[in-house]
Structure formats: structure tokens, C-alpha cells
Amino acid sequence: MSTPTLKVALRTYPYTEALKSGTVAVSGAKLEFEEVKPHIAAFRRMVRDLAFDACEIAPTTYIIARAYGVPIIALPVFFVRRFHHEGLVVRPGAGIEAPKDLEGKNFGVRAYSVTTGVWKRGLLQNEYGVDIDKVNWWVDDEEHVAALKLPANVRHVAEDSSLVAMMAEGKLDAACTGDAGIGRAGKPGAGWNESGPALPDDLRQLFPNAAELDREVYARNGVYPIHGTLAIKEEVLQANPGLARSLYDAFVEAKAPYLQALRAGTATGKQAEKDRKLMQIVGDDPLPYGLEANRASIEALIRYGHQQGLIPRPYKAEDMFLPF
Questions:
Q1: Which residues pair with 33 in a beta bridge?
Q2: Which residue, of 5, 6, 176, 240, is most buried by count of CB atoms within 10 Å of its CB?
């Protein structure tokens, strides 16, 4: 039996570069990488056209796609982690002093199913009692899963406008920052987030003590938000028994030197700086892989997705992720 070659879309991180360079091999398979820029375009190609054998994909996009019958399944490998008290800004004069004040207000997020937005709504609803059905959610991009039906309180900005313009005009009261909201100049495309758009300079963080709150909530519920997972076409795994385990083991092997360098204090670069800050909250592995190590986070994302009308029922973690 010949060794299969898998077409893979995956960004380069310090903990994936060994796989991409070939230093770490996958037993029983060859990986052929396709660079997609911006990588967000690969999400859509995967869930709409099954364009890759394996693809790094936003976990919310993935669970929605799987719930809607797209024949893909994911490894419990997560490439980006972050907490979500930070990156939620409010406009002075909007009357928002506490999270509950968001009810009845206009909130901007790039797409309703963007994972950052899902985590932030989940935090607001489950930790702070915000009725998210009473918030007007404004979006200016399309959802990755075209079949998704959005709640009635989700509204699309006018074709000649944007979240940035709405915020500048005082029509938004709050928004996500960064790529998930008002930190980019347009829809995903070449150079879409290379320079931040002009925004009012008096926007303020709803949670000025974000790091402290992140620590408190994590200590209470153990939820460590996941971003970026590896979705694989089911037919590829069915045709190659043992491949899923080989892929998982290879990702664990590729991460090990980076993790060792982080613990030793020798890892450098922006990713290492971010991960060292996270280690102050979550301990000595800021990038835990495996189903059990991530069960609380997986179950929270599934629960939030169901609460927010993105998936039809509250699936089990094992329904969505392979049991490694």
C-alpha cells in the first residue's frame, strides 16, 4: 500500500514548524503544505469545498460545520489560546459601566460565529448574567458555514458601511477589537489586517482589570479558551487506519522542544511572550493537547454555541473531537 500524501493548510508556529520543515514526520503519511493568506480563507475552503485533507480551522467554525453535516472531524490539538476579558471596548457616552448595561445596545463583531465573539458572548452570559438576546449584534462579514441561520437580533451593516464606520459615527456602543471586530479594515483578503483602521481614541476597555478577571474565572471553571484546531476529512481517516493517531503524535512531538524552551526561559519571539503570560495563569503548559486536558474548554465552547443558536443541540466532546 502506497504512503498517502495529505494536502494540509496550517500556519507556522514555533510548535508546528518542525512538522512543516519535515524535521518531525508523520508515520504512514507525507504532508504537502499549502500556504493560504490570509489563513482565514482556508476555513471557508475547508467547510464549503473540503479543499484540504487536513486544515487548521477556527473551532467554532468547525463545530458548526460538523453539526451541519460536513464530513470532517478534529484532533484535540489547539494552536492558539487566549482569554477574553480583554478586547471588548465601549464608547464613552453609551451608558455602559457594567456588562449588564450591554443589553439594548449595539455591539460590533466581524461575524456572529467568529470564535472570539462566541467566547466573549459566553463569558458575558455565563459569568456576568448578560441576556445576549437583548443585545443588537452587528456584523460586516459573512459566516464561514453558509447554511447557518442566525438569530433575529443579528444584523448586517449596510453594504456601503462597516463596523469601523459605525463606531466612528457613534452608531455602535461596543465592539470586539482586533480581527474579530474593529481592528481590521475590511473583509478577509490580501493585507486585510496589516494596518489598523482609524478609530475614536477614547474607546475604553469594559474590563480594565482583564488579567485579574481571567485568572479568577479560570480558577473557578477551568475554561481555557481554544482557537485553531486541526480538522481532517473523515474519508481520509477511514481510508488510512491509524493515521489520526500518527498525526496527533507528530503534533505532540513537534511541540515538545518549544515547550521545553518555554520552561527553560530560552524561547524568544512574540509567541513565547504571549505564552509566558498565559503560563502565569494556566501553569507550565500553555498549549495543552488531548481531549481530557481540554474537556472543560471544549464543553464550554459547545455549550456556548448551543446557547447562541449556532448549533442545534449540546453535543458531547467526543462527538466533536477524536479521543486522544
A1: 8
A2: 176
